[in-house]
Amino acid sequence: MAIPSASVKDMSELIRQLRQVAPSFGHNQYWFRGHTQQKDRPLVASVHRYFNAAEERQLVLQFQAGAVGRTSHCPAGDDFGSWLVLMQHYGLPTRLLDWTRSLIVAAYFAVVHEPINEDAAIWLLAPERLNMLVPEPIDGICLLNGHVAAPQVRSLAEAAFREVPCKSELYAVLSQDLDMRVLVQSGAFTIHASGVPLDEHPRAQEFLARFDVPAASRTAFQEELSAMGARRSLLFPDLHNLARELATTGAQNIKISERQL
């Protein structure tokens, strides 16, 4: 059976289609992921796109070794989930695939984050349903990191660093908020032991759906998202992105009196 999909031209149609599709997944929460290019469809964690298992272990171990001298906020050595989140945050390819619990954030990444004129896509994931369809099911969603992480999820994270047995190759997980970006983007993850795309799972239609955004509709989405307050400086809360947003929008949009500063 094919994964449910629909073409949407603006946010209102996206919400309407979401309300039609979502009930088929039961009364679960939903996560989203925006792809700025619809053709970039395979839901594969970045490390599995470019590296084999041995190379993945070398990447994470070298990052661990190098990070200790560069920051005082490193996770505990055996908190493998927190290390993966830290690596993902700084752009190292990992076995984590980013999702968000916010439809607005996913739409931003699909149509605003990169200024290109191509068809985009927004994925929907029913994470609780996914976690019931793996060899070692989890009832609900658990944390990836910290002492309360489920043993099977800890093993899947540890397997990025050394060879350990894992019965399940896939889970939907949440992270403790290790940085402001994860918090403001309502971040969540799927963790993958292999490069098999999530959308090629034999039962993908039971937990995935896709909404396609035609290139001609990107401007309508961008205008609506701007009105909703989806801005770079809020989703990436650092000085670099604040400066980038101000430089892009221009001084004519700044109405702050000098007396307020």
Protein topology:
Elements: E1 5-7, H1 11-21, E2 31-35, H2 46-50, H3 53-67, H4 80-89, E3 96-100, H5 103-111, E4 120-125, H6 127-131, E5 142-143, H7 151-158, E6 170-174, H8 180-184, E7 187-192, E8 208-213, H9 218-227, H10 232-235, H11 239-249
Helix pairs in contact: 5-9
What does this structure look like?
The strands form 2 sheets. Strands 1-8-4-2 form a 4-stranded mixed sheet. A 4-stranded mixed sheet has the order 3-7-6-5. The N and C termini lie far apart (59 Å). It is globular, with a radius of gyration of 19 Å. It has helices spanning 11-21, 46-50, 53-67, 80-89, 103-111, 127-131, 151-158, 180-184, 218-227, 232-235, 239-249; strands spanning 5-7, 31-35, 96-100, 120-125, 142-143, 170-174, 187-192, 208-213. The model is unreliable at 256-261 (pLDDT under 50). Helix 5 (103-111) crosses helix 9 (218-227). With 261 residues, the chain is of the alpha/beta class. The chain has one domain. Helices cover 36% and strands 15% of the residues.
